[in-house]
User: Fold Fis family transcriptional regulator from Sulfurospirillum deleyianum.
Amino acid sequence: MDHTNYIAKSRASIEALKSANLLKSVSINALILGERGVGKLTLAQHIVNAPVVDARAFNDLLALIETHSVLIVKNFHEITNYKKLKIALDVYKTRLIATSNMDISDSIVDMFFSLKIVLPPLRERKEDVTPLVEKFTAEARCMFDDTEHDTFSLSIIAPDLSKNAYSLRRSVYNAYLMHSFGEDEVLTMMQNFISNKIGGRNDYRDLLYLFDVPMIQSGYVKFGSQLAISERFGLNRNTLRKKINDYKDRLKID
Assistant:
């Protein structure tokens, strides 16, 4: 995976990339802030090609400072001794590109950094989502060595932005895998899931939603109305209406 391929389509990402490109030409320390999964490390690796060290491994960080002219330090808020770190950086003239998903006091920022970049979450950078989905889809195709599913459509993906790129990548991989499943894989997956659920007195009734909900949901997507679903499924309209009411908390119907 090319970690230096920082995607910038939204205004916020474009501005961040401009700052990063400036940092490629000037040797100053910089701090990149933002939630987990917003691309902090990717942007840092766009700026410099350097070893990445976790601030929680403080002794390792001090050792690397002695032997490297530039480092990427993630989780900078986890530094346990800022004074000792500052002395080491000054002695060995080591440049720092740091990332953090937590706020850091202005006094610490001023002590170490000449520039601060803040990356907003993906939910505020919607223009970046589609190219990231395309990137993760290409990753999935390569990872699974799959040349048979060129019909995979991005429209079947429900992007999960709750944890930024982490949850988005997972939603893409899940959609890609499910698209590639055949009947045998679906039945095996259902059997494994149900095997972990059964053991009560009313299991058949309680687990029937595993068939009914996706069936009704698919019917709405394909046919558009209860009348059409009941006709196509050969299901009494009152029975269908009761099922929809029973599963109202599980169905995603507008």
